Amino acid sequence: MCSECEKTFISATCLKLHERIHTGEKPFKCSHCDKRFSQSANLRTHERIHTGEKLHTCDQCGKSYRQKAYLTEHMRVHTGEKPFVCDQCGKSFSQSSTFKHHKNIHTGEKPHTCNQCGKSFRLKGYLTAHMRVHTGKKPFSCDQCGKSFSHAAYLKDHMNIHTGEKLHACDQCGKTFLWASVLKNHLRVHTKEKPHSCNLCGKRFSQLPHLKVHQKIHTGVRDYMCFECEKTFTSAGHLKQHQRIHTGEKPYKCSHCDKKFSHFATLKTHEMIHSGEKPYKCSHCDKRFSSSANVKKHERIHTGEKPYVCDQCGKSFLQNGQLKSHMNIHTGEKPYKCSHCDKRFSMSGHLKIHERIHTGEKPYHCTACGKRFNNSSGLRTHTKRHHSK
After folding, report:
1. Which UniProt keywords are listed (predicted)?
2. Which of 62, 164, 244, 332 is buried most, with the most CB atoms less than 10 Å from its CB?
C-alpha cells in the first residue's frame, strides 16, 4: 500500500512505480535528448520519435504507428466505431481528444488564451493559427509560385488557381467554383438570403463587402478619386468602372455579335437580346424584362412611386436620369448640343426632337389620315383637332 495516498497494488514493483508520482523521480533518461521518464516503457515509446521506429502496423491499409494506442484509434477508421458519445447532444466520436474538444462547445469553455491580445479559443490548433496574426508567420508555401499562407486551408484553396480545378459545385444550378467561400456567397442567389443588415437604414445585403460599400453612403466617405475628373467613389470597383469613361476601354465582348461593353452586367443584359431571355417578371402584370433594373423601373408605373425628388422645386421622378435632366432647368446648363447647328438643350429628349428638323425624320404618323409628325405632341394635337368626335 502507498503510504502517501493509501492506494493498494498487487506487487512491490507496481507500488515502486506508483511512488514515483509522489517523489517525482524519473530515473530513465533519453539517450538522444535530455527528457526523463518515470517508467522504462514510456522511455522506449519516446525514443521511437528519434529513431522513427513504428512497430504497430494496421493490417487493413499497412499504415504504421509508434504506439499501440495510436493504432487502436486508427483502426476505428476501418471499423467505423465511435465509442465516445456526448451526453448533451448524442454526437459520437472515434477519438477521445476530439470528444474532449467537442464538449467545450456545450460548456462554452475556451481554455486556450492568446498572450498578446487575450482572445480565447476552444482548440489549441485555433490558438496556434491565431498567433500568426501577431507573428506574421506564414509557414505554408505554394510550390508553384512561392506565395505563402498562414493557414493550410488557405494554401489548399490557392492551389486550385494553378490546377484550375473547381471542386465546389452548386447543387441548384451546377455552377462550379474554386473556393468554398465563393460557393457560399453564390448560394444566396438561390436562397435570397441577405444576412448582412445596415444598422442605419435596415437595407440588407447578401455579401459583407456590399454592405461596407453601402454604409459609405451614410458616412459620406468616398476614398477613391478619379485623377482625370476628380470625381470620388465609395469603392475601388466603382472607380475602375468609371475610369473606362476616360480610357474608352470596353473589355466585355458579346459572344453573338461584335458589340463591346465597359461593364460585365451590361454585357449580360445585352446578351439576353440574342437569347430572348426575360427572366424578370412584373409582380403587377405579365410584362417581362431582361434586367432587374428595368422591371423595378416599370413597376413604379403600377405603384406610382417617384423616388427621385428635386431639392429645388420638390418635383419627383420615376428615374434618376429624369431627375438629372430636370436639374439642368434650375442650373441653366445645356449640355446637349445639336450636331447640325449651335443650338443647345437641357435634355437629350429635346435635342432628339430638334434634330428631326434637320434630318426631316417624322416617326409619328396619324392612323386616320397618314399625316406624319416629328414629335408625339404634334400628333396628339392633330388627332384632337381633326379626328376627335
Report:
1. Metal-binding, Repeat, Zinc, Zinc-finger
2. 244
| CA distances in angstroms from 147 to 124, 139, 156, listed in the order given | 26, 10, 12
CA separation, residue 71 to residues 45, 76, 92, 265, 271 (Å): 13, 9, 19, 56, 60
DSSP annotation string for 139-195: -EE-TTT--EESSHHHHHHHHHHHH----EE-TTT--EES-HHHHHHHHHHHH----
pLDDT at 302: 92
Residue 120 and residue 112 in contact, taking contact as beta carbons nearer than 8 Å = yes
Using an 8 Å Cβ cutoff, are 54 and 71 in contact?
no
Question: Which parts of the chain have pLDDT scores under 50?
Answer: none
Contacts of 327 (CB under 8 A, 6+ apart): 310, 312
Within 10 angstroms of residue 86's Cβ, the number of other Cβ atoms is 14
Q: Is the distance from CB of 384 to CB of 376 less than 8 angstroms?
A: no
Query: Which of 102, 101, 121 has the alpha carbon at shortest distance from 111?
Result: 121
This prediction has a pTM of 0.36
Going by C-alpha positions, the residue among 235, 233, 267 that lies closest to residue 250 is 267
Residue with cell 400628333: 379
Q: Rounded to an integer, what distance in angstroms lies between the CA atom of residue 200 and that of residue 310?
A: 23
Cα 21 to the chain's mean position, in Å? 54
Partners of 108 in beta bridges: none
pLDDT of residue 113: 92
